[in-house]
Write a structure and sequence with these properties.
globular, 2,5-dichloro-2,5-cyclohexadiene-1,4-diol dehydrogenase, Rossmann fold, single chain, seven-stranded parallel β-sheet, NAD, oxidoreductase activity, NAD(P)-bd_dom_sf
């Protein structure tokens, strides 16, 4: 075997790393997968629906990237263990993870049906916990790893009309901070993003649910714009790379200055 003679400074920042992207079928997840692949990572894409995963995998492999996919449901423990195991079976290890699977909600707290409250808690909070648990199971054996979870600026403050969703995003921040303490001694870094409004299908739902809400957020944002999936993806790529080797337990807003 010949050694890679490429100077480290000219290699892509994620070259040689294996990353699982959970919630990769659309929006932030799909855009982040494109950024991670361009930065050199080999990817396992995960979501509940196969068709968009297959299309994105074809797009990325056609561009020369090493990408595979498997379906999975973050609310089911056996499914989460299965897609993490599938990643290791395909690539041999797991260096990084982006836990992006989530669902939205709107409506006053007293108007949220109990079954809807239970479902969003299961997907957004339990799903993140299950994903971290299974990813750490592999990373602990290796002695290293990096995990990025997704919260929201709704996890940093309150506002009317999205209480159940915001409760889950506060919980993801608490879970991530605790994970950074629990798993830092194992060589595993865990950080969390708090995106503001990002151009995704979920933002389109918000436009319908809260007329004028997005425009009000833009007006209150110092950069006066909505963010994009690739901008979030670039932040994820940094946190998963060795350039962020001393960053763990951080809550990083990607919100154009809205939370400043």
């Amino acid at each position: 075997m010949t050694m890679d003679q490429t100077p480290p400074s000219s290699r892509p920042p994620l070259a040689g790393k294996v990353v699982i992207v959970v919630g990769a079928s659309a929006g932030i997840g799909a855009d982040t997968a494109r950024v991670l692949a361009a930065d050199g990572a080999a990817l396992m894409l995960v979501a509940r629906t196969e068709e968009p995963l297959a299309a994105l995998t074809k797009e990325l492999t056609s561009a020369g990237h090493d990408v595979a996919y498997t379906t999975g449901d973050v609310s089911d423990a056996a499914s989460v263990a299965g897609f993490v195991d599938a990643t290791v079976a395909r690539f041999g290890r797991l260096d990084g993870a982006f836990n992006n699977a989530a669902m939205g909600q709107s409506g006053r707290l007293d108007a949220v049906p109990e079954e809807d409250f239970d479902r969003i808690m299961t997907v957004n909070v339990k799903g993140t916990w299950l994903s971290v648990r299974e990813e750490v199971r592999v990373m602990e054996r290796q002695g290293y790893g990096a995990i990025v979870n997704v919260s929201s600026i709704g996890g940093l403050r309150g506002s009317s009309g999205m209480g159940a969703y915001q409760a889950t995003k506060h919980a993801v921040i608490g879970l991530t901070r605790t994970a950074a303490h629990d798993f830092g001694p194992l060589g595993i870094r865990v950080n969390v993003l708090a995106p503001g409004p990002i151009e995704t299908p979920m933002l389109d739902q918000l436009r319908l649910a809260v007329p004028g809400g997005v425009e009000a957020r833009i007006a209150a944002t110092p950069l006066r714009k909505v963010g994009t999936g690739p901008e979030v993806g670039a932040t994820v790529a940094f946190l998963l790379s060795d350039r962020a080797s001393h960053i763990s337990g951080a809550v990083l807003p990607v919100d154009g200055g809205f939370s400043a």
